[in-house]
Structure formats: C-alpha cells, structure tokens
Amino acid sequence: MSIDIKIIPGTEASIPDPPRPKRSGDTDPRQYFPMRPMTGEQRNALRRAAEELSGALSGFWMHRVPGKRQAAINMDHYLTGAGQDREFSPGNVDDLFDALTESSTTRHQSLEQGFLDKIREDLSGAAVGTIRRYNSLNSDPSSPNWGEPWFGLSSEGGTNWFYAVGSFWVAFGGRARRDADGVEVYYRAYIYDRYNWDVERDSGMTIGKTTFIPNEIEWLIDQDVLTDQNMPEFRRWQPDYVTAVPDNPSTDVDEGGYRVNDALLGTMMEFGEAQPFDIVGSGRIRSVFLNYASEKEGSNEPLPSESKGR
User: Fold this and answer.
1) Residue 147: φ, ψ to 5°
2) Which segments within the chain are labelled E, that is strand?
3) Contact 169/150 with Cβ under 8 angstroms?
C-alpha cells in the first residue's frame, strides 16, 4: 500500500485537515450538448426535460424512496445550494465507511493501519514528549492523487451511499505524542467528492454515463416532456439523453423507468439552474496507543478496534 505521511507544522493541539484535491474533475460544458448546433426549439425541449427530471429527483417523494434520501438531498443542493459545500456529519462519514465494497473495505483498513504504522515509525527515535501533526500522503507515482493526501474508495452498489456518492476519496489526519513506551495518536478520516455530473472520457472519446430513474417516481414525471419530438439526439455513439426502459411482463417486479444520460443533468449548469459543489466531511476522532514493546515481542500492533471515539 503506497501510503506515507507528511508532517504538518502548526498548532500542536489540533488534528490538521488535509488540503482539498487539486483537480475538480469538472466537465467541459461543451460535452453536455450535441456536437451539431441546436435550434431554439431543441434547446428549449432539452432544458424542459432537464428541469423535469432534476425536479423529480430532488422532490418531496424522492426523499422517501428507500435508499434514495441522500441522493435526493444532493440533487436539491445541486439546484439550490449556489455551489456551497455540502458537509457530512461524522455519523454520515462513518456510515459511508460501513457501506463500502469488499475491496474498498480492505483498502480502507490497510490505509488506516499504514497511516498509524508510519506515525509510530516516525516518532520511534523522538524524545519523550515530542508532539507532531500529520496528514496522509499518497506515494504511488501511478495514482492521479500522487503527492496529495487522498486515496480512492467505492461504496457498495444498491446502498444509500452508492446513489448519493458512489466513488470518493479518503484521507487521514492525526496528532501524536511520544511517550516512554510508545505513541498516543488522535486521528480521523476525511472524505471528499465532487458533485458535478461529470462526463467521462477515454482515449479522447466521451463515454455515456447513465443514471436509472426508478419506477417509484415515474408517475411524477411528465412523459410528454421527455418524449418531445424536438428533443435533440445526444451523440450517436452514446446513450441518448433519455431512454424509456419498459417493464418486463414476464416477472412480478415492476422494473420500468428511464435511463438518463448524465449529460442531461449536467446541462442544468449551463442553463444557469444548478451549480456543482464539494462534498466534504470527517469521521469521529479516534485514539489509540501504539506500543513499541510489541515490536520486541515479534507481534504487530492491531488496528484500534477498542479505541475511543468522540
């Protein structure tokens, strides 16, 4: 695991917050629109469809669909938050960590343990009473976050946090004091995500990311708006702006809905009706005592499952 630490100067009594990532990942606005120029009628139809869907995804009913409440809060903030941060509470952040994929859970635990191991190693030769503050540091040259505090994680599909966040970044901050027998560490995890309906690219070609609009809110959507004959085609090698997904009559489950290209919801920024924003937050402060005696006994100090949180 390519995790290192960076000593942060400053007030010794506080845990240092990591700086935000240098790259926002925002999409060039031109990627949200067809390559061919639109007529006034096409532009108006596109705007009405974007308004219709974003309104349904942020509305009262969506907040009550199981597993979609946090996603609805995000959409509402996209439309009304004027680009201000949405800050998750420590409880939200810890809940997000409980909803990771299996591989991301393992990665998160390894990163946390690596952060603590590096702190213990750094203070091993320090005088008793030495206090230092740290941020994690990504030391993988192949990572897009190389030289920054951040590492990538993903939430499990189908969970509340998958629809609200999906993939995101994690970093660590800590304050440690050298004791006679070891190191006392107070630390916490931080998360960062950019809510921007980005359109991904691969080898110079735009990829059509899509979002499924569930049947629970289908009745709230004006189908005439989505099927307006003036709606422009997005790009021929990608999913269209809106694709109706019919129900499968051979099953007892209502699976109908709409498959929506993320570019449609991204157009709301260019229409002046939404602004991207940062999702930030930090987990509860945890404490652990890392004992140097364990090294002499030939054992490794475990993750602080019994550590105190506050």
Assistant:
1) 85, 0
2) 3-7, 86-88, 131-138, 151-154, 167-178, 182-195, 201-202, 205-206, 210-213, 242-245, 257-261, 277-282, 286-291, 308-309
3) yes
From 125, 156, 176, select the one nearest 285 (Cα to Cα): 176
- Largest Cα separation within the chain, whole Å, is 76
Query: What is the helix (H) or strand (E) element at residue 225, kind and residue range?
Result: helix 223-226
- pLDDT digits 0-9 by tens, 196-230: 887 765 444 444 567 777 666 667 788 889 889 99
In the beta sheet, which residues pair with residue 183?
Answer: 178, 290
What stretches of 85-159 show up as alpha helix (H) in DSSP? Answer: 90-97, 102-123
pLDDT tens-place string over residues 232-276: 988 777 778 888 777 666 665 555 677 888 899 999 999 999 999
User: Looking at 26-90, which runs of residues are DSSP E strands?
Assistant: 86-88
Could you give the angle at the alpha carbon of 194 between the alpha carbons of 188 and 195, nearest 5°? 125
- Global pTM value: 0.86
- Can you read off the two tokens belonging to residue 204? 């110079």
Amino acid found at 187: Y
The residue among 220, 171, 288 whose CA lies nearest residue 68 is 220
